[in-house]
C-alpha cells in the first residue's frame, strides 16, 4: 500500500465535507494493482491511476457510515445538505410539478449541469420521460460505500454535463457476509411516518466475489395545512363557482366574490413514495492479468403528489347562455366594445383532489474487462446500458370541452352554487384520469489505456461511443388542449456522440506537478466540441500545498430541450398591471431543435495546509462562467420591463404589453442560447481530529451569482431558488468508547433578500440543529437514533415562494423528525 504524506492526510480529512469523517481515501474504483508494494488508485476527476491522491481538483467524500449516522435515507437528502448546493432542486418536499423526482444542484447552476456517475460511469437520465438529469431515487442508499463530489468543471474528462461538477457514487464491492438493516422515522406531529429495510449479502463464488442486495423504503405524507407556518390559501377558484368574477347568491343571481379557497388542506408538504431496489455486482480475476466486473441494478418507484382539486377556467359564449344569467352582466366594456364571453371559474372539489401518481422502472447493467500489462500499464473496455420507463397518471382531471358542453346543457345546476354529484360529472365525461408515458435510454461503449512511466509521468487515453434517447407522450386529451390543465405536446428524439480523450500528469519537480486533459466529442445533433483542462499542484513543504485548475466545458442540449413540444406551466408571477386574479399565470414553454451547446470556463485556486497534528484546512476560490447558456427567459423580469415600456421585453415573452388580462394569455418562455451565467465563491474547510473528538466546519461563501444580467447573489426567489451568501455545516463527532459514539451537526443558511409585487423582503439567518447516537451491542449488532431539526425551526416566509409561501428546496418544511435504525451483520 502507498504511504500517505502529510498533505495527502490533510486532503483526506480536510477536503472532505463537514458531514463526512471518512477513514478511506477518495477513490473512485475498488480495483487496484499492487507492484513493489505500491497501490494505484483512480480518483474522481481523472482517468489516470495514481500512486497518491494529491490532485489539483477539490473532491468531497461522504462515507456510508456518516450517511447512516445522519439518518439520511436518500441520495438527494445527503447532497442537499452540502454547503455547495444552491438554487432549486427537487426532493421529498417538491409537490408541484416534480413527478416524484429527486435531483442535485451544485453551485445553483442547474440540475442539468451536474453529472451523476455510478462507479465512474454515467447514469441514465430518469424520471417520467425525456429527462435531462438523473433521478437520485433510482440509487438505493444500501448499496453505497461512499459519495464523491468533484467541485470543478470536468468536461475534458467526462464530456457533457460536467460543467458545475460531478457526483460519483461508489457502490459496495468485494463484500463478504450478510447485513440486514432497518430504519424508521416520524415527525413530532405524528405524521410523515417513513421506514424501510435492506438485505446485503456477499460471498466468494466461482473464484470471484458476488454481492447481491435488496432495499425497500416507504416515505409517508405530510399535509401542508397541518403545519402552523403555512398560511391559508386564497384562490379565486372557489367550490361554488364564479361567473364574470361573481359568485352565486343562492337565489339565481350573482354577487361579488368576497372569499377565496384554501388549497393547503389537500396539498402535500412531504410527498409519499415507495422504492424497491435490487442490485448485484460480480468481480472475478479471469486470468492472472485480467479482471471481469459486472454490476446490475433495478429500481421501481411508486410515488404520489397531491394538490387541491382542479381549478377549471372556461370562457363561455354568451350567445349560448340563458338570458336570466346573461342579462345580469354588462354587455359592453368601458370602451363600448361588446363583451362576447363570460369567464367561469370553479374549484372542482366535487371531483376530489388531483392525485399525481408515477410508476417508474429504471434498469442499469454494466460489464467491464480490465487488464494489466508487464510494464504495469492498464487497459479496459466496458459496456453500460441504462433504461428508464415511466407511466404517470393524474386522477380527477377535468375535461374542459366536456365541462363546457355540460354547463350549456345544465346551466341551472352549474350556476346554482350547490355541490355537484360526482356520478353526474363522470357520466358527463367531465372527470377523467390523465394517462401519460415516457422513458429514457442510454448505451455506452468505451475503451481506455493508462499507465505510468519510470519517471512517474501518468497518462491515459481512450474512446467512447454513446447513444441517448428519450420520449414523453402526454394524454390525448392534454395534447388536444381539452383539459383544464395546460396543453402539452409530445416529445421524442435521440442522438449519438463519439468521443476521444487524453490525459497526462507530470511531476516537473519534487514540489511541482502539472496535469492536463483534452477531449473531443462529436454529436449527431450539432457537430463537434473540444474541451481542455490544465491543473497544477505545488508543495512548499510536507504540510503546505497550493493547487489550481483552469478548464473549459460544455453541455450538449438534451433530448427534452431539442425535441420538446410546446407545454404549459402555471408559474408564480406578479402581474405588474395587477389584472391577473391569481399568482399562478399560464406560461407556454417551447423547445428548439436548433439549439447549440453551452460553453463554459472554470477556474479554481486553493491551498491545503496541515496546521499541526490533527488540525488541517483547505481553502479554494472557484469561478464558473457559462456563455450560450440554454435557458428560458426570466418571464418575471421581462414582464416588469415590458410594463415599463420596453417593447423588446414584450416581444421576448410574446405579449403586446397593453396590460389587458387577455394579453397575458400568450405568455411564452422559449429556450434559447442567449443566456449567460457567472458565479464565483470560496470553499473553506477546517478539521480537528484528536483523541475522542472530531470537529469539522465546512463553509461556502458565495461572492457572485449572475444569470442573464440579473444578480441573484444573496437573493431568494420562488422560481429560481435561494443563493445564500454563506452556507455552512459544523459537525462534531465524539467516540466515547469503541461501542458508543455521538454526532452533532448544525447547518447554517444566511438570510436572503427578495422582491414580490414591487415590495422587498428579507429572510432571517437559519440554523438547523441535528444530533444522533450510535451504539454497538456486540460485534454484529448496532443501533443508531437521533433527531433532525431539534428546535423545530420553521422555514422562512418567502412571498411568492414556489409552495407554502416559502422555498421547500432551501428550508425544512416538515419540522422536527425522530429517526432510529439498526443493522445486524453475520
Based on secondary structure, the structural category is mainly beta
CATH topology: Maltoporin, Chain A
How many domains? 1
Helix content: under 10%
Mind telling me the C-alpha Rg?
28 Å
How far is the first residue's CA from the last residue's CA?
28 Å
CATH domain class: Mainly Beta
Beta-strand segment tally: 45
List segments where confidence is low: pLDDT < 50 over at least 5 consecutive residues: 12-38
Mean pLDDT: 91
Shape: globular
Membrane topology: Multi-pass membrane protein
Region (Disordered): 235-258
Keywords: Cell outer membrane, Membrane, Receptor, Signal, TonB box, Transmembrane, Transmembrane beta strand, Transport
Signal peptide: 1-20
Q: What is the strand and helix layout of this fold?
A:
Blueprint lengths: L5 H9 L19 E2 L2 E2 L1 E2 L6 E2 L8 E5 H6 L5 H6 L33 E5 L2 E2 L21 E7 L4 H4 L6 E7 L5 E11 L6 E12 L2 E12 L2 E2 L18 E2 L2 E3 L5 E3 L11 E3 L2 E15 L2 E18 L3 E7 L5 H4 L14 E7 L6 E19 L5 E21 L1 H10 L1 H4 L7 H6 L3 E22 L5 E16 L2 H4 L11 E17 L4 E12 L3 E15 L2 E12 L3 H5 L3 E6 L11 E7 L7 E15 L2 E18 L2 H9 L3 H6 L15 E23 L2 E15 L2 E2 L4 E2 L3 E2 L3 E10 L4 E10 L3 E4 L2 E4 L3 E11 L4 E8 L28 E9 L1
Family: Belongs to the TonB-dependent receptor family.
Membrane topology: Multi-pass membrane protein
Subcellular location: Cell outer membrane
Describe the structure.
Residues 1-20 form the signal peptide. Keywords: Cell outer membrane, Membrane, Receptor, Signal, TonB box, Transmembrane, Transmembrane beta strand, Transport. It comes from Thalassotalea fonticola. Residues 235-258 are annotated as: Disordered. By secondary structure, the chain is mainly beta. The protein has a single domain (6-825), classed as TonB-dependent receptor, beta-barrel domain (Maltoporin, Chain A, Beta Barrel), CATH 2.40.170.20. Helix content is 9%, strand content 50%. β6 and β7 form a beta hairpin. The chain is globular, with a radius of gyration of 28 Å. The protein starts with 5 loop residues before the first helix and ends with a strand. Mean pLDDT is 91; it is low at 12-38.
Amino acid at each position: 500500500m502507498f504511504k500517505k504524506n502529510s498533505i495527502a492526510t490533510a486532503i483526506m480529512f480536510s477536503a472532505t465535507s463537514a458531514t463526512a469523517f471518512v477513514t478511506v481515501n477518495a477513490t473512485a474504483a475498488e480495483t487496484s494493482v499492487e507492484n513493489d508494494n505500491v497501490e494505484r488508485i483512480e480518483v474522481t476527476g481523472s482517468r489516470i491511476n495514481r500512486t497518491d491522491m494529491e490532485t489539483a481538483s477539490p473532491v468531497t467524500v461522504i462515507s456510508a457510515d456518516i450517511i447512516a449516522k445522519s439518518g439520511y435515507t436518500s441520495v438527494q437528502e445527503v447532497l442537499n445538505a452540502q454547503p455547495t448546493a444552491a438554487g432549486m432542486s427537487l426532493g421529498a418536499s417538491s409537490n408541484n410539478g416534480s413527478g416524484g423526482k429527486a435531483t442535485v444542484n451544485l453551485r445553483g447552476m442547474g440540475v442539468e449541469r451536474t453529472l451523476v456517475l455510478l462507479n465512474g460511469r454515467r447514469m441514465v437520465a430518469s424520471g417520467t420521460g425525456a429527462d435531462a438529469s438523473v433521478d437520485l431515487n433510482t440509487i438505493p442508499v444500501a448499496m453505497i460505500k461512499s459519495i464523491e463530489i468533484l467541485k470543478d468543471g470536468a468536461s475534458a474528462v467526462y464530456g457533457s454535463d460536467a460543467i458545475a461538477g460531478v457526483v460519483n457514487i461508489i457502490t459496495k464491492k468485494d463484500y463478504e457476509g450478510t447485513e440486514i438493516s432497518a430504519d424508521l422515522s416520524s415527525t413530532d406531529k405524528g405524521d410523515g411516518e417513513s421506514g424501510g429495510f435492506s438485505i446485503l449479502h456477499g460471498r466468494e463464488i466461482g473464484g470471484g466475489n458476488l454481492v447481491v442486495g435488496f432495499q425497500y423504503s416507504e416515505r409517508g405524507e405530510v399535509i401542508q395545512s397541518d403545519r402552523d407556518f403555512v398560511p391559508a390559501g386564497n384562490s379565486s377558484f372557489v367550490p361554488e363557482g364564479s361567473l364574470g368574477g361573481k359568485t352565486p347568491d343562492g337565489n339565481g343571481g350573482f354577487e361579488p366574490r368576497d372569499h377565496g379557497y384554501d388549497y393547503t388542506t389537500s396539498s402535500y408538504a412531504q410527498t409519499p413514495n415507495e422504492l424497491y431496489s435490487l442490485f448485484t455486482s460480480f468481480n472475478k480475476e479471469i486470468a492472472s492479468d485480467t479482471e471481469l466486473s459486472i454490476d446490475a441494478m433495478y429500481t421501481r418507484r411508486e410515488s404520489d403528489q397531491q394538490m387541491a382539486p382542479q381549478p377549471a377556467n372556461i370562457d363561455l359564449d354568451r350567445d349560448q347562455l340563458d338570458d336570466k344569467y346573461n342579462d345580469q352582466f354588462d354587455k359592453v366594456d368601458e370602451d363600448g366594445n361588446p363583451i362576447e364571453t363570460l369567464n367561469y371559474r370553479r374549484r372542482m372539489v366535487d371531483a376530489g383532489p388531483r392525485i399525481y401518481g408515477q410508476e417508474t422502472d429504471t434498469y442499469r447493467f454494466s460489464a467491464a474487462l480490465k487488464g494489466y500489462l508487464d510494464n504495469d500499464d492498464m487497459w479496459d473496455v466496458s459496456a453500460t446500458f441504462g433504461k428508464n420507463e415511466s407511466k404517470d397518471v393524474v386522477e380527477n382531471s377535468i375535461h374542459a370541452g366536456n365541462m363546457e358542453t355540460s354547463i350549456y346543457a345544465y346551466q341551472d345546476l352549474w350556476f346554482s352554487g350547490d355541490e355537484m354529484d360526482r356520478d353526474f360529472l363522470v357520466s358527463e365525461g367531465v372527470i377523467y384520469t390523465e394517462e401519460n408515458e415516457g422513458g429514457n435510454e442510454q448505451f455506452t461503449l468505451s475503451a481506455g489505456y493508462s499507465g505510468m512511466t519510470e519517471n512517474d509521468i501518468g497518462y491515459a487515453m481512450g474512446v467512447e461511443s454513446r447513444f441517448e434517447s428519450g420520449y414523453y407522450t402526454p394524454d390525448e386529451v392534454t395534447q388536444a388542449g381539452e383539459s383544464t390543465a395546460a396543453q402539452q405536446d409530445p416529445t421524442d428524439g435521440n442522438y449519438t456522440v463519439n468521443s476521444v480523450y487524453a490525459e497526462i500528469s507530470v511531476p516537473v519537480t519534487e514540489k511541482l506537478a502539472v496535469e492536463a486533459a483534452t477531449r473531443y466529442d462529436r454529436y449527431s445533433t450539432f457537430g463537434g466540441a473540444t474541451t481542455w483542462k490544465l491543473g497544477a499542484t505545488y508543495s512548499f513543504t510536507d504540510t503546505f500545498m497550493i493547487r489550481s485548475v483552469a478548464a473549459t466545458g460544455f453541455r450538449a442540449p438534451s433530448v427534452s430541450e431539442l425535441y420538446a413540444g410546446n407545454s404549459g406551466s402555471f408559474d408564480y408571477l406578479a402581474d405588474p398591471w395587477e389584472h391577473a386574479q391569481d399568482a399562478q399565470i399560464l406560461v407556454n414553454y417551447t423547445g428548439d431543435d436548433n439549439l447549440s451547446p453551452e460553453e463554459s470556463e472554470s477556474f479554481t485556486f486553493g491551498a491545503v495546509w496541515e496546521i499541526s497534528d490533527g488540525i488541517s484546512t483547505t481553502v479554494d476560490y472557484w469561478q464558473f462562467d457559462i456563455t450560450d447558456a440554454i435557458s428560458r427567459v426570466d418571464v418575471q423580469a421581462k414582464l416588469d420591463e415590458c410594463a415599463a415600456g420596453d417593447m423588446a421585453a414584450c416581444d421576448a415573452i410574446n405579449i403586446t404589453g397593453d396590460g389587458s388580462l387577455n394579453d397575458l394569455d400568450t405568455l411564452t418562455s422559449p429556450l434559447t442560447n442567449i443566456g449567460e451565467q457567472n458565479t464565483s465563491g470560496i470553499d473553506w474547510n477546517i478539521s480537528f481530529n484528536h483523541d475522542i473528538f472530531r470537529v469539522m466546519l465546512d463553509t461556502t461563501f458565495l461572492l457572485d451569482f449572475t444569470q442573464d444580467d440579473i444578480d441573484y447573489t444573496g437573493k431568494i426567489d420562488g422560481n429560481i431558488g435561494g443563493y445564500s451568501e454563506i452556507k455552512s455545516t459544523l459537525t462534531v463527532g465524539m467516540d466515547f468508547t469503541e461501542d458508543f459514539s455521538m454526532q452533532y451537526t448544525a447547518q447554517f443558511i444566511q438570510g436572503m433578500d427578495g422582491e414580490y409585487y414591487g415590495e422587498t423582503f428579507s429572510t432571517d439567518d437559519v440554523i438547523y440543529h441535528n444530533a444522533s447516537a450510535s451504539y454497538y451491542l456486540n460485534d454484529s449488532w448496532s443501533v443508531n437514533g437521533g433527531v433532525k431539526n431539534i428546535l423545530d425551526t420553521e422555514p422562512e416566509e418567502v412571498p411568492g415562494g414556489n409552495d407554502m409561501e416559502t422555498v421547500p428546496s432551501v428550508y425544512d418544511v416538515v419540522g422536527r423528525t425522530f429517526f432510529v435504525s439498526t443493522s445486524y451483520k453475520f
